Amino acid sequence: MNPKTVSYILKRILMAIFTIWVVITVTFFIMHAVPGGPFLGEKAISESAQRALEAKYGLDKPLFEQYLTYLSDIVLHFDFGPSLKQRGREVIDIITDGMKTSVKLGLIAAVIALICGTVLGSVAAIRRNKTIDKVIMVITTAFVSMPSFIMGTLLLAFFAVKLHLFPANGSTASGMVLPVVTLSLYPMAYITRLTRSSMLDVLGQDYIRTAKAKGVSGWAIIFKHALKNSLIPVITYCGPMIAGIVTGSLVVEQIFAVPGIGRAFVNSITNRDYPLIMGTTIVLAILIVVMNLVSDIMYKVVDPRISFD
Amino acid sequence: MKPRKLSLHIDVDAFIPATDQDKAYLVKMRSSSTFFKDGMKRLLKNKVALVSIIVILVVVLGCIFIPMFWPYKYDQMLGVTAGAAVDSSYANLAPFQYGATEKALIEQGTKVFPHIFGTDAAGRDYFIRVVYGTRISLGVGFFASLIVLVLGMLVGSIAGYCGGKVDMVLMRIVDVIYSLPDTLMIILLASVLKQTLGAAIEKTIFAKMGSNMLSLFIVFGALYWVSMARLIRGQILSLKEQEYVLSAQASGAKAGWIIRKHMLPNCISVIIISTALQIPSAIFTESYLSFLGLGVNAPMPSLGSLASDALNGISSYTYRLVIPALIISIIVLSLNLFGDGLRDAFDPKLNA
Amino acid sequence: MSLLEVRDLRTSFFTDAGEVKAVNGISFDLDRGQVLGIVGESGSGKSVTAYSIMQILADTGRIVGGSIKFDGQELVGAGEKVMKTIRGARISIIFQDPMTSLNPVYTIGHQLIEAIMLHTGRDKKQAWDKAVEMLRLVGVNDQQRRMKQYPYEFSGGMRQRVMIAMALACEPDILIADEPTTALDVTIQAQILELMKSLQQKMGMAIIMITHDLGVIAQMCDETIVMYAGQICEKGRTDDIFYNPAHEYNKGLLHSIPTVHSAGQRLKPIAGTPIDLLDLPQGCPFAPRCERAMKVCISQHAPELTVGDGHTASCWVNVEAGLKDGSIVIDDQAAGKEPAHE
Asked: With a CB-CB cutoff of 8 Å, which residues 249-278 of chain A face chain B?
């Protein structure tokens, strides 16, 4: 591999690690801004929990030492401490349980969004200004403006409640349909528009004209010459898309009662389960940062032109 | 040599020289116009954008004026009077339905203003709550965008103009904040500020706003200014290359004056478009946070919190969920469409 | 029969603002092995002529009239199937900006091979060898390594050489060069022109050289066409065009070029701006800017008049001169029955 590419990748990885460290640090110090500190913030914790926490975190020690202990626990042992409100459970276990469901949900939504989005966007671009294009544009504009929790609640209201087509509870297989659809609609609409404008841009480029002048047929122009170039912005979007799906899942899981990490996170906020809040924030943040990193690297691999800053 | 024949109709007299007037007749000059006029012309031709801005204006005017004459207050729990038992006939009325007490009043001849959207579980008129909620959502969205704009402009123009070390440091900070997962950080900040701010602002003017709204603004200010800063810095960097800065510097103008007078007016169209597109996203974030319970404090309604409250009664009172949801969608959609229209009309780089 | 016969070609672009008549009735011939130059300002319709021949106009453009006969076959209305066999194989084109004309995400080897495999039925290995040979022919060294590189790794001049290699790989009958050197440095420009000249002698294809630079015309072309506002003003051997200009526009162009002898004198540009193609007048399109314009120029378009051996021009000044010295008479009776001719 090109040495410049390697150094670029290394730089990005370092940046990602730095960002994760910033997230952990910021989270820690913000949480300690709560009066009484996150681990003792509420008076109503049991004696045993309190003793365990004090021993574990050395709460009489200076803040900075506590911070270092916390940091090393996470990095070395993946230990985020015990949950404050869910007795006897470790934060890391709650998180892993929740992740199983959420990752499944999110992945399916992402794949649907990518495939449908690129196909629809390409169709719209190829048939520019014809009816199919206008229809696609109107629908996607509507979906792009509807926040996922709006979409989710509306879908819930109509399909689950009024029409009884799908269960309102998300823990079963058929119950996954509505949450997945809700999560995928915004990214799908966005990707459709992105692909369309990107492909239109590409189709207007000189090298497409050259391909035509060489005698290349219409379909070959689209699939061989235009597509690879058009997908470049879509690849860049993968990182933000995952971030969006994570964000969306916080509300979607709430609306559809899906037992995932998103719901655990929201409940932890309402319950003021600070160790859990911190743990989920950090894990989700790591997920987003890693996805952005992967997306940046892939972008570089696909387009050899991009400068190596 | 034999003369050649040309077969055509001509008037031999027509071989006299043409006057300037004759020539001028041929050349039609297109009227020149300024960038602003061109842009406005294009914008006015865009029907979608026009409809959107009208919708927004209607909503905004509604939010401002309706509460002035509406007979119900958003926090007024009808049926609850101090000291007496709660009159539950006011609670959970369907749209346009009258409660038992109200029906009695009507029979007596008193005029009772109808509840267009019914009432909620606490006996509050839902319509006015929705209107108020819209007002809050719009207001927060707008002011948050303003904060983003001001902060972004400040940092961006300083970084852009000063360059060198200052620029590098500021941009490193921007990069780090930019790569933080914003929604997570916002939720975190909001949940903490909810606890801490309450006590801190009790005696100040901010108390009326509520700790949540204040924390919303703080949170926006902390995180969202970065892309605006980057944008403005980019604009300034490109403008720096332009001739007239050199000439201004040559005549001894100071840095601050240069920034204000020469550079910023040129970025205006880019800034305005970017801000216009920032407002719907701010409204979205606000309603999202309200939905999660991190938004404005009760009893102040926000469209997001109204939607979230309505989730519980979704089977019986579906309309309570659908109404705020639709309104948010309409507002965000119209603002996005208008922002798109602005960009199509004024962005010189896009030649559709 | 000429290799290429263009008769009364009309091409327009249909935009929101109206019909832009980019090419408005042009006729010319191209023989085998001939180097023809088309010179004119921006907007004169020279590139659109080329794109009309290859039928690679933008979506809004259409040939609205006339005929283009290539080797006896009518191309106007022939359809995509026919055009695909001609493009790249029998008529090739190279464009002005080699950077944007090459696909950035594919190696140039890939792009070269595509053209070869498409039209000559060679397999990949044979196509590779042919591509390498073409690169060598256009002066690219270290061919095997270069084949695996991407366009951004080449300099401007190198990229144009690659474009030429790609265009000539299938040994076409006609090479159209649309402002091939405009985007290059002057020194590189000279190299590319030299290359094209030597390739033309080696391979014997005809070249249509489109440019706004009279210097390029002088260097490369046997015959030249001068275009203005979508019409041909003057046509003939390059020497005649330069030394015996017969159209006021051409005369204006030649006078506006500074020469070694004109040092210290004021430059004489042609006054005014090019005409709006949305709104073409009835008469000569150059009339508003012409010092010698007459009333007839405003109302009628001049007929194509032979002013020398293989040299024609459409300018009333020549008609006026001819009438004055008696070499031309007007035949009113025949008028109206056929188009104006002599």
From this structure: 250-251, 254-255, 265-266, 269-270, 277
